[in-house]
Design brief:
about 220 residues, single chain, mainly alpha
Length: about 220
């Protein structure tokens, strides 16, 4: 397979990770985000499967997960507690809002979100990003440069939600998920971790900052 040129990589990166989020953010009409995500993730998956240098086991690789259960869940417990206390202190009206107002939708989010949203994002921002642009990063701090670049691109995606909290939280999450992928070479690990934090945000009351749709999922959610 003919390798893509550095110019091609730059154009591809700008289209996927800059132009598409900006276009979505400033689109003159409402667009549902999941079909767009699925389409771009499908392209990323297609590119990965065509790359003979890509180790396809990284698309799941569950064997890397059990040895890291304690680390993943211990860190999650600390962050989850901080988020809950922050909601309770600064926006108490949002505490457990979706769970209190519509448990059926909450349950649907808990099941559907990891499959329909998290895994496609992990294909794109972890497996594809690390494989496709590895040659761009050089030097002693190459790994951390890739981790931070992946996290920055991941956070930039969340400009579509039109609030600073989504960008700040997803940059922190992006650093964690990218570092986990670099450590484990496993989308199973990053999907688990990403799902834990995302589902908790919807549960604890911050879901309206990460939702974009034509119908509000909670009573006080704003149309974004």
């Amino acid at each position: 397979m003919k390798l893509i040129t550095r110019t091609g990589l730059a154009i591809e990166f700008l289209i996927i990770f800059v132009a598409l989020p900006l276009g979505y953010r400033f689109a003159p009409m409402p667009i549902r985000p999941l079909p767009v995500l699925w389409l771009v993730a499908a392209y990323a998956l297609w590119a990965l499967l065509r790359d003979p240098a890509f180790d396809r086991t990284r698309l799941w690789n569950w064997t890397a997960v059990p040895p890291r259960f304690s680390t993943i869940f211990a860190l999650f417990a600390v962050v989850a507690l901080v988020l809950w206390l922050s909601v309770r202190r600064f926006v108490p009206g949002l505490e457990w809002l979706l769970f209190r107002q519509n448990r059926a939708i909450w349950a649907m989010v808990m099941v559907a979100y990891p499959v329909l949203s998290v895994y496609p994002q992990e294909i794109l921002y972890r497996a594809f990003f690390f494989q496709r642009y590895a040659s761009v990063f050089k030097g002693r701090h190459r790994q951390w440069s890739m981790i931070l670049a992946s996290a920055a691109a991941f956070a930039f995606l969340h400009i579509i939600f039109r609030n600073w909290l989504a960008i700040v939280l997803t940059f922190g999450g992006g650093v964690l998920f990218a570092a986990r992928y670099e450590q484990t070479k496993s989308l199973a690990a990053t999907t688990l971790e990403h799902s834990l934090y995302g589902c908790w945000l919807f549960t604890v009351g911050l879901g309206q900052y990460f939702y974009h749709g034509s119908i509000a999922i909670v009573g006080t959610a704003t149309h974004r």
